[in-house]
Amino acid sequence: MAIIKHPDQRVGVFIDTQNLYHSAKNLYHARVNFGNVLKDSVAGRRLIRARAYMVTTESGEEKGFLEALTKVGIEPKTKDLQVFYGGAKKADWDVGMAVDAITAAPKVDTVILFTGDGDFIPLVDYLKIHSGCQVEVVSFGRSTSGRLKEVADHFRDLDEDPRRYLMNYRPVRGARARAENRDVSVSAPEDSIAPSADDISDIGKITGVE
């Protein structure tokens, strides 16, 4: 679908960090270059706010990741990982991200959601019908809800240029490539809510900040 983009268009970006992180990890065994994804998605328009939603752990190992996001103009919004009696864990930002997008809608012309999660379909419908905002979705096509792609005014498929949108991307060939070239349903495992210490050891590379 053709959409209108012009320099004076006000843009709000809302990032489902865990969804993109685990999509890149499961599909490509790589890390998202949030800097390039943000730059290309905004496309020279007026960025009013960019927020990334994620969960923090007691160890605080994601501190460097939060700092790197800030360097590329993304405001981290965090909540503590909840651990219940018996070891169950909970970390869900869906409602918070939706509320922030709805609250910001009167102040922007376009809302961009970085997620492939079909749970956000009602949010897209609401923003289009009740706020009149243009709603764009950015994610990896192979791990994105088909219906979410359909309801969005525009879908940017990060699978189309993994070299630009991933750090340390290494294309695979042969049997392994055929095995991996399939639609993947991505969700964050309960025991892997936040990036591990190993995953963020080179924190600048995660966001494209050197």
What keyword list fits this structure?
Rossmann fold, two-stranded antiparallel ribbon, 6-stranded parallel sheet, 35% helix, 210 residues, alpha/beta, disordered C terminus
Largest sheet entry: 6 strands, parallel
Global morphology: globular
Class by SSE composition: alpha/beta
**Fraction of residues in β-strands:** 15-25%
| Oligomeric description of these chains | single chain
CATH class: Alpha Beta
Give the count of helical stretches. Answer: 9
**Could you name the ranges where pLDDT drops below 50 across 5 or more consecutive residues?**
174-179, 185-210
The total beta strand count reads 10
Sketch the topology as an H/E string, one letter per element.
EHEHEHEEEHEHEHEHEHH
Tell me the layout of helices and strands.
Elements: E1 10-16, H1 17-28, E2 31-32, H2 34-42, E3 46-56, H3 63-71, E4 75-80, E5 82-83, E6 89-90, H4 94-104, E7 110-114, H5 121-131, E8 134-139, H6 146-151, E9 154-157, H7 162-165, E10 166-167, H8 174-180, H9 203-207
Parallel strand pairs: 1-3, 1-7, 3-4, 7-8, 8-9
Antiparallel strand pairs: 2-10, 5-6
